[in-house]
Amino acid sequence: MQHQVRILIVEDDPTIASLVGIVLREAGYQAFHAGTAADALQLAETNAFDLVVLDWMLPDTPGVQICTALKERAGRRFLPILMLTAKGELSDRVTALDAGVDDYLSKPFYIEELMARVRALLRIRAAENERDAAMAALEAQNDALRVANEQLRTMQAQLVQSSKLAALGEIVAGVAHELNNPLAIILGNAELLSPQHDPEDQRSVAQIIESARRARRVVQSLATFARRGPMAKEWTSPTDLIERVLDLKRAALRSSGIALEVVCSSDLPMIWVDIPQMQQVLLNLLHNAEYALAGMPAPQVWLTVVRGHAEKPPLPPAQAASAGGAFVCFDVADNGPGIPDHVIERLFQPFVTTRPPGRGSGLGLAIAYGIVTGHGGQILINTQPAQGTAVRVALPVEPSESASGQE
To answer: CATH 3.30.565.10 region(s) of the chain?
Structure first.
């Protein structure tokens, strides 16, 4: 439906107001009349006018002041004002233009000239509206391009990471295989040598056994990282998965003096996952949180499961309210020291760790990344210095064909 132009006539002389109104209506415009400045401002509150025909001399307020008020109410929207005035001095015209008047017409005036000026101002307004609409469209396109660019950069980073992991996995698989047999022989023979009668010999044997076991654990982590076999997926409840993980970790957190708060939303759907692998992911995250909280005052871990979106999780205290969405989100948050900036960018790369030598292999998050992306999900991290870290594992509610096809 075509918009009908609405014009406000602010004129205290009823004869002039009636004449102008008749002419405007005959031209197809809607005309509204206000005899005072107060009436004009009241009408402007409830109507969006396309043009104002304004008398200079009003009984309550000068027209130039009303002009300023009407322009301020219009804000960024262009509202043309045509002033009718009996004043013909140059200083009066300058005052009117400085107040925001877009055109003026001296009394007495010709109807043809009045309508010509009205049409000219309405053309300018139409052009301004088109420009504003074009600018708004450009801003919307710019925002969409920014979002698309950010998504593209995220996808490129994920592809690069996946390519690195795939290439490294081939190497790691061979190394793990070559190291496993010699380590088994070393550990087996060292265990046969224990116990020794000489304390020094016994200490040496114990060191061999401890070192061999640690090497074996690293090799097992390498083998898990490099594994490219099919996933044994099945439908499971997120709360059941959490309970299995907590059965293995709750006692360790308690013995470390770490308070644990677990909250699961009530509207969680079943998820299609490899249960042992997802247990490993969540255990790795809890283990990382436990390490980060060592020596911290009032250490606490929040484990929250909600249906939400693949976006950065809130820092502690985590919110338990479900926002709805296409993902089941497992959030593991702690009130530890946070992760340094120089580590964040490489956090999911193999062998990157914040722990001292001998305390970690740097494969936990790399393994978790491979498992989660293999399920069609995402891992997102939110961390702030001295505030803590929150890690979100977002698994799709509806498994994708590619993820399902890995079964």
So the answer is: 230-407
The reported pTM is 0.47
Backbone φ and ψ for 259, nearest 5 degrees, come out as: -75, 135
Q: Is the CATH code 3.40.50.2300 the one for domain 6-109? A: yes
- What would the pLDDT profile of 227-272 be if each residue is shown by its tens digit? 555 678 899 999 999 988 888 788 889 999 999 999 998 889 999 9
Are 307 and 264 contacting, i.e. CB atoms less than 8 angstroms apart?
no
How far is the CA of 99 from the CAs of 56, 59, 84, 86, in angstroms?
11, 19, 14, 17
Query: Helix %, strand %, coil % for the chain, to 5?
Result: 50, 15, 30
Domain 230-407 has CATH 3.90.45.10: no
- Of 30, 22, 24, 129, the C-alpha closest to 74 is 129
Query: In angstroms, what CA-CA distances link 38 with 13, 19, 51, 330?
Result: 15, 22, 18, 60
DSSP assignment letter at 100: T
Nearest to 386 by CA among 335, 348, 345, 347: 335
**Residue 12 and residue 234: Cα distance in Å, rounded?**
81
> How many CB atoms within 10 Å of residue 229?
6
Q: Boundaries of CATH 3.40.50.2300 in the chain?
A: 6-109
- 214-233 pLDDT tens trace: 777 667 655 655 555 567 88
What residues are paired with 384 via a beta bridge? Answer: 388
* Eight-class DSSP state of 89: -
Q: How is residue 264 written in tokens?
A: 């699961």
